[in-house]
Design goal:
heterodimer, A: 351 residues, alpha+beta, OB fold (Dihydrolipoamide Acetyltransferase, E2P), 2 domains, elongated, B: 384 residues, MetI-like fold, 3 domains, two-stranded antiparallel sheet, 75% helix
Chain lengths: 351, 384
């Protein structure tokens, strides 16, 4: 198996920067997720590792060997494409067998390996079908089987679930997690869905406009976001962020006053997670504002207020009922607060 | 089946059906008429009474005709052949041909059926009917005059088979070169993102827009003097290209190539680039990805483009008539020669028979390839 080192790789098309100075070591057998909104360079990074895109600068090192100038076929990677990219003229069996065939591995072993891969993804009933006669989920499983039939050093998955419907996404996600555990191969997984990232990853890389924002375990990323971009991207709902000013350890904003913070005086962005905060008895909480909207989620009720134009939500008991416009009091103790610089994508201020 | 929204009022249906019917008749009539003419004696063929042209009394008087029995038996044989081709043959191929080599089964099966049909239709059937016709009385009496003598004259006496052979050489050359260069160039241009690729395509379009005569005029002196300029390379035996099929192939390819490149490029563009990429990650180099993954889904495009190239070479008059000597003449200029000769009515009917003969390979091509010219071969490759 393989350790992948990405040393300061960049990708530029003319003046446009796709990926800027990406530097990371991916450990052997690690499940790494590249996460970010569309156009953030995550797929480009993966394609550079696959060899489908040339890196403008930097070195890609797999198992101590520089692979920048190698053809994709010589890098010993397997890739699952967002659009499946199955060979339409071959049936499922031939699709799965194709990598073995072109690489000239011993034909006697082909059948067993194809059957094994097909069994892993529960495709045994469809081996004679052409891709056109399969559903989206089945096609995606064929693509998975084609990737695992050979034992490659590295698995690359480019948003493999984004074309599936919500229910199938959950079951296929579980399948991928289980598969990667069994195969114990280094896996790089690209997604824009933070839930996929949280559930699958050993480590998450959050990217924006080609620049890495934060690298860390899902817990780290969730609990200590490095800046407001990560804070607003991770979690469902995303972290509440409000602009205000700190003076003498007290944060003040519209309807809001939070004491006991350790931050230098000046404008800051303060964030907290909806599930950390709670409702307080009248005027006891740190935020006292009229309800802007109230959403029933089933297991809880989400109450939102507006602070300086930004929506701030808090999770309340599912039995809580109120009218829009009623004043609520929200308890935001200082220990749940995250403080960021008051710039765009403001950095976290430790403390 | 038809939803309410798509249901049409009767008047509209009637009008469109009538229009289509008239259109078909107008379009098909000339072919039908010259086909009928070509089987009649000159007196019937040029008769002022259309019924005489169809039923051919003087052809019948000459002892050549078809009885009702002949026609019925002929239809039966054709129908059985059609059944064999569409029902029995596919089943036999599915049952007996080795998997992966179905096309061999198809080739062998089709050959067997074709030979069987020719033998039955042209040898066994006439012999049987000769014996049966006198027995059946009125049913056995000739009602339509029909003679194949003009075809014999054309193909055997006038050496049309030689023209046919030359046409095949020229068209095979044009199709082979056009498709080989066209697929490679089309694939390269479709997958290249560079600005140069676009410039090349525009230049190709400009060349396509040139009148054919310009190209012929440009090539003509080069071909006439080819023994001189080829001498340093090939020595004493350097050929004069003028008059040879090779010269025509070169010019026709020059005319045709821009078009095939454009057409194949658009077919390649409709194939998602992820397929190439998947193939390359799976272990192919560029060329293997092209050959093993892209070409198998490109057949409809290749066949369609090939058909167009074939038609260009097959129907070309200007280039072939200017560049070929008498002995390498293709069919189209040969027919033009037959028509323009100072002639008797017999010669005219012979020319008509030649004109009908030239359409036969086209029908054959369409019949063979209609199964292949199907869209949607890439269905299922990517998320639709």
């Amino acid at each position: 198996m393989a350790e992948i080192q990405l040393r300061n790789i960049s990708k530029r098309w003319g003046a446009f920067v796709g990926v800027d100075n990406f530097d990371l070591t991916i450990a052997d057998k690690e499940f790494l997720v590249l996460l970010g909104p569309s156009g953030c360079g995550k797929t480009t990074t993966m394609r550079m590792i696959a060899g489908l895109e040339d890196a403008t600068e930097g070195d890609i090192i797999v198992d101590g060997e520089r692979v920048n100038d190698k053809e994709p076929k010589d890098r010993d990677v397997a890739m699952v494409f967002q659009s499946y990219a199955l060979y339409p003229n071959m049936n499922v069996y031939e699709n799965i067998r194709f990598p073995l065939k072109v690489r000239g591995s011993d034909p006697a072993t082909h059948h067993d390996r194809v059957m094994q891969a097909a069994e892993r993804v529960e495709l045994l009933d469809f081996l004679d079908r052409k891709p056109a006669a399969l559903s989206g989920g089945q096609r995606q499983r064929v693509a998975l089987a084609r990737a695992i039939v050979r034992k490659p050093k590295v698995f690359l998955m480019d948003e493999p679930l984004s074309n599936l419907d919500a229910k199938l996404r959950v079951s296929t996600r579980a399948q991928i997690k289980n598969l990667s555990h069994d195969l114990a191969a280094t896996t790089i997984y690209v997604t824009h869905d933070q839930i996929e990232a949280m559930t699958l990853a050993d480590r998450v890389v959050v990217m924006k406009r080609g620049v890495v924002q934060q690298v860390g375990s899902p817990t780290e990323i969730y609990d200590t976001p490095a800046n407001t971009f990560v804070a607003s991207f991770i979690g469902s709902p995303a972290m509440n962020l409000m602009d205000g000013e700190v003076q003498g350890g007290t944060f003040r904003s519209q309807h809001t006053e939070i004491h006991g913070l350790t931050a230098p005086d000046g404008p800051v962005t303060l964030g907290f997670r909806a599930e950390d905060a709670s409702l307080a008895a009248a005027v006891q909480g740190q935020i006292n504002a009229p309800i802007y909207t109230l959403e029933l989620l089933g297991d809880a009720t989400m109450i939102s207020v507006r602070i300086n134009g930004a929506l701030v939500s808090v999770k309340a008991d599912k039995a809580f009922r109120a009218e829009i416009g009623d004043t609520v009091s929200i308890s935001v103790p200082n220990e749940i607060c995250h403080i960021f610089e008051a710039t765009e994508d403001g950095k976290r201020i430790e403390g | 089946m038809s939803s309410r929204a798509l249901r049409q009022p009767f008047a509209l249906k009637f009008t469109s059906a009538t229009f289509l019917a008239i259109w078909c008749i107008v379009a098909a009539f000339p072919i039908f008429w010259i086909t009928v003419m070509s089987f009649k004696s000159p007196v019937d063929a040029f008769s002022s009474n259309p019924l005489n042209v169809v039923f051919g009394p003087s052809t019948r008087a000459g002892g050549n005709g078809l009885s009702i029995l002949d026609i019925l038996m002929g239809i039966v044989v054709i129908w059985i052949t059609a059944r064999l081709m569409t029902r029995t043959l596919p089943m036999m191929v599915a049952a007996y041909a080795p998997a992966g080599q179905k096309w061999i089964g198809w080739v062998i099966g089709s050959l067997v059926v074709a030979i069987g049909f020719l033998v039955t239709f042209f040898a066994i059937l006439p012999a049987i009917l000769d014996a049966l016709n006198p027995v059946f009385g009125p049913l056995g009496r000739d009602i339509i005059g029909l003679t194949t003598e003009h075809y014999k004259t054309v193909w055997i006496d006038r050496g049309f088979s030689n023209n046919f052979k030359n046409s095949m050489i020229v068209t095979t050359g044009v199709v082979t070169v056009s498709l080989t260069v066209g697929t490679l160039a089309g694939y390269g241009l479709a997958r290249s993102g560079s600005g140069l690729a676009f410039a090349i395509l525009i230049i190709a379009l400009v060349f396509r827009a040139l009148p054919h005569s310009v190209l012929v005029a440009g090539y003509l002196p080069v071909f006439i003097s080819s023994s001189e300029w080829l001498a340093p390379i090939l020595g004493e035996n350097a050929p004069t290209l003028y008059g040879k099929p090779f010269a025509v192939i070169a010019v026709l390819v020059a005319i045709n190539q821009p078009f095939t490149i454009w057409m194949l490029r658009s077919f390649f563009q409709s194939i998602p680039a992820e397929l190439d990429e998947a193939a390359r990650v799976d272990g192919c180099n560029h060329f293997q990805a092209f050959r093993r993954v892209i070409m198998p889904v490109m057949w409809p495009g290749v066949i369609t483009t090939g058909l167009f190239s074939f038609l260009l070479g097959y129907n070309d008059f200007l280039v072939t008539s200017l560049l070929l000597d008498a002995q390498n003449q293709t069919m189209v200029p040969a027919i033009a020669g037959m028509f323009s000769r100072e002639t008797t009515t017999t010669d005219q009917v012979v020319a008509v028979a030649a004109a009908v003969s030239i359409t036969a390979p086209l029908f054959f091509l369409v019949m063979v390839f209609q199964r292949q010219i199907v869209s949607g071969l890439t269905a299922g490759a990517v998320k639709g």
